[in-house]
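This is your field. Have a critical look at both lines of this record:
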Amino acid sequence: MKKFCFIIIALFLTVATLLISTHDFSGKNIVDTLQVNPTKITKIVLKVPSESDYHHTTDKTKIETLINYLDQVHYKRMQDAESSSMPMKASIIYLYEEDKVDFIVPYQKGVMISQKVFKVENGIIENTFIKQFYDSLDEE
């Protein structure tokens, strides 16, 4: 009976250790969530819900400005059941790295990046910043 209890406790501790080690308790930076390399992005295309046109830039300074802004907060991956609170209308940002394309759909306290939904931690993504950034870009 003691061996059985010992085996159950050892099994429980092993499973608990595996669950804790594979769960991400800390938020990620924008770099850790993207499928493109932020330092190699060559073009950004942006659409905001209040406008009908897409705007774009290949200006490295503007690309860095956006990436730096998005990197000011942390992103924590949400489970599928938690992600049902996405708005019906949101901005979309396409990031181009040579032949790769990634996208971001920011909505203040949440964001979809590469078809994965994240909770924004340590701040929010301001719609006013996204709109001002959009207005600073060229029409496509």
Remarks:
- The first strand starts at residue 43 and ends at 47.
- The radius of gyration is 20 Å.
- The beta strands are 43-47, 55-57, 74-77, 92-97, 100-107, 110-113, 116-121, 138-139.
- The CA atoms of residues 65 and 133 lie 9 Å apart.
